[in-house]
Design goal:
This protein has twelve helices and twelve strands. With 345 residues, the protein is α/β, with parallel strands linked by helices. The structure holds S-adenosylmethionine (SAM) and iron/sulfur cluster (SF4) (2 copies).
Length: 345
């Protein structure tokens, strides 16, 4: 029997299409905009969802309309046997997109296995091409490994490779053009992300945000002309074309967010479900699952949650007159779920 997914809509008429699944809250580097602290409170191991549990939940989300899944973290490649999960998910006919976001440090060893397991797409986060800068920004000297990982992803045959760069004023805004040029050499599309005031970004301030406009100005100065690529999409990035036809993207989550078309929700490694990156509370799907809820009960729990969704976190932040990090360092210590590395970005 083929089950036609029920299209559920939230209060702003947005469907539930996209699920970001964080498979671990651990990370092997410490990006300053995400994990600036020396110590963290980690999710208890026994609460981390097993692959069978993730698989079960993805089927339920699929029944409700989800057709895109992105695996993330923390660093997803730290999750043991990740290709086994990829294989399970890749076998689901309703998933037309199965992607992974990684910092790339372990990608060289895993790219081919992930491709063979059926992963469709890979996005690698890359903020700098300068080894010393990489080291001071992440506390680890791993740039060469990341670059090897990107090359390995290309060799493994992943199409539409993407590079995600968070641009922080005073850190890497001088590398926008260099990153575009690098993206050409590895046949990837680079997407510049504005520094966001969410999760572990405790050092965030508006003056460190290198905005969409700043990026367009800089690219325009260098290349002469930048044209928007006109397309209808719920994807967060706006794409632009250079005179030679090469494209890049900008995700302007801080100065010009895109909540009105947001069809994404997030599942943390321990099964908390969040309707928005900025949401302070979520729904505990692990507890429901482990206490024996039936598929029908889980479907009802999720669809009811989505149908009352009114979240437009980033847009509401733009409306603030005084803008500081969403959550303080002290509050983050009381609940790891508020961290970006737990929510998956
Ligand atoms: N560890 C993997 C990685 O870095 O690609 C996956 C998880 S990470 C939380 C997902 C994305 O969130 C990364 O591209 C990262 O750059 C982005 N991110 C984390 N903190 C951010 C912030 N404060 N502002 C903007 N993007 C952020
Ligand atoms: Fe950096 Fe991703 Fe790790 Fe956060 S989770 S510190 S963004 S690599
Ligand atoms: Fe979606 Fe929330 Fe991000 Fe807006 S802030 S785009 S509603 S996740």
């Amino acid at each position: 029997m083929i089950l036609i997914p029920a299209m559920i809509k939230d209060t702003l008429d947005r469907p539930l299409k996209n699920l970001r699944i964080s498979v671990t809250d651990r990370c092997n580097i410490r990006c300053q905009y995400c994990m600036p602290e020396l110590e963290y409170v980690w999710l208890p191991r026994e609460e981390i969802l097993r692959f069978e549990e993730i698989d079960q939940l993805v089927d339920i989300f699929g029944d409700l309309g989800v057709d895109k899944v992105r695996l993330t973290g923390g660093e997803p490649l730290l999750r043991r046997n990740l290709p086994t999960l990829v294989e399970k998910l890749a076998a689901k006919p309703f998933l037309r997109d199965l992607a992974l976001t990684t910092n790339g440090v372990l990608l060289a060893e895993h790219a081919q296995t992930l491709k063979d397991a059926g992963l469709h797409r890979v996005t690698v986060s890359l903020d700098t091409l300068r080894p010393e800068r990489f080291k001071s920004f992440t506390r680890f000297d791993y740039l060469a490994r990341v670059r090897e990982g990107i090359a390995a992803a290309g060799r493994a045959g992943f199409d539409h490779l993407k590079l995600d760069t968070v641009v922080v004023r005073g850190v890497n805004e001088d590398e926008v053009v260099a990153l575009i040029e690098y993206s050409k050499t590895v046949d990837a599309e680079v997407r510049f992300i504005e520094y966001m005031d969410v999760g572990g970004a405790t050092g965030w301030s508006m003056d460190k945000v290198y905005s969409r406009q700043n990026i367009l100005d800089e690219v325009g100065r260098h290349y002469g002309r930048v044209d928007p690529v006109v397309e209808v999409s719920s994807a967060p990035a706006d794409r632009f074309m250079l005179p030679d036809g090469w494209t890049f993207g900008i995700i302007s989550s801080t100065t010009a967010p895109f909540c009105r078309t947001c069809d994404r929700s997030r599942l943390t490694a321990d099964g908390m479900w969040y309707l928005c990156l900025y949401a302070l509370n979520g729904t505990n799907l692990r507890e429901a699952l482990r206490s024996g809820a039936s598929a029908d009960e889980l479907r009802t729990l999720i669809s009811k949650g989505w149908q009352v969704r009114a979240d437009r976190g980033a847009e509401m932040r733009v409306e603030l007159r005084q803008r500081d990090p969403l959550v303080s360092r002290e509050t983050l210590r009381t609940d790891p779920h508020l961290e970006m590395h737990t929510r998956g970005g």
